[in-house]
Amino acid sequence: MANEKKIGKYGVSELTFAKIKDNIIEGEKTVVPGTTEVQQEITIENSTLPADDGPYLSVSSGISEAKLTINNYDINSAAKAILYDVTATKGIEIYGKNLIPNDVAVSYKTKTTAGESIYVGMLKGKFTLPGLNSQTAGDGAPKPETDQIEGTFVSRTVGGEDVVYLIGRGDDPEFDLETFMKMVFPATPEDAVIPAVTP
After folding, report:
1. Which of 110, 138, 143, 168 has a 20 to 30 Å separation from 40 between CA atoms?
2. Which range marks the domain in which residue 160 is found?
3. Is 149 a residue whose pLDDT tops 90?
């Protein structure tokens, strides 16, 4: 155990969005460059029930909440069309009063300190609109601000199961990126299946 290699995760890239309708994607996926940080928060509520003058039984809600907070230098018009159906006419993005965010699927890539890829897929959620934070340039090199959006996610049916998110491990020799992406972004109902376990 003394020589066991300790592995962490770092980096974020390949942020990808697609609109979801009836559990399959509608239209094309969009890769958004410029992501600086993605923070995933998963909440499972556990409670211990007392009886007989002491702790008696532990119960759990399962996944009660899933959030994804994304910082990106520019959530561009193509991404906003998927996230919110925002239209752009002659370079002008139009935000209507009755705007309602779409259900979307999201994936992104991180990696281990050993260089292996890790993919995260969030299956069905809605994102807040990004604010616009600008500062004067001042002297020296500019320090651009990022856009921040927060998504709240629920489960989506995959292979007959209610699934909230997926993690694809590139350090597993059986991992197949194409299968993972089909599960996150199914173009047909047949794509939304869970691979069989290898005996």
Report:
1. 143
2. 18-45+66-135+147-190
3. yes
